[in-house]
Specification:
Blueprint: H1 8-34, H2 40-51, E1 55-56, H3 58-64, H4 69-81, E2 85-90, E3 93-101, H5 103-128, H6 133-144
Antiparallel strand pairs: 1-3, 2-3
Helix pairs in contact: 1-5, 1-6, 2-5
Length: 147
């Protein structure tokens, strides 16, 4: 039965991945807020739409992002209220809707990326230089000050 459980090293990798993700997202979120821009999750939704031709059905958007369905629905309504996306009727099914990014949404996503992109590059650069998982764990601990 012990073969089904993660090793101590696998657990260290998992913890380091989660800490790094949480720290990087927090840092980027703070920089966006400081610049008067919306939360990072708005970017994720807008980017998903944009990279799929500007529109997706809600279930497709849910599959492409990491949002829970209830959170996604609320977030879509919020972005629609800001005219960043719009709900349009699905051609082959009048009851269905398609979420479509607007020009205003594309512009906002680009402005957010001007902060998000360089910060992501800077944070990921440290991990790109490591060779192997132990080095990744060590680099994560160095960046988070956990020595």
């Amino acid at each position: 039965m012990k073969d089904n459980l993660p090793t101590a090293f696998e657990t260290e990798i998992w913890v380091a991945l989660n800490r790094a993700t949480r720290r990087i997202q927090s840092d980027i979120g703070a920089a966006l807020k400081e610049a008067g821009l919306p939360p990072l999750k708005w970017y994720d939704l807008l980017w998903s739409l944009e990279r799929h031709g500007g529109q997706l059905r809600p279930f497709e958007l849910a599959q492409d992002t990491i949002f829970e369905q209830s959170n996604l629905s609320h977030l879509c309504k919020r972005l629609a209220a800001e005219s960043l996306i719009e709900f349009v009727d699905f051609d082959s099914d009048r009851r269905g809707k398609v979420l479509k990014i607007t020009a205003k949404g594309r512009d906002l996503r680009k402005r957010m990326w001007s902060i998000y992109g360089p910060m992501l590059h800077d944070r990921m650069r440290a991990f790109g230089k490591v060779d192997g998982w132990q080095a990744f764990i060590d680099a994560e601990q160095d960046q988070s000050g956990q020595n």
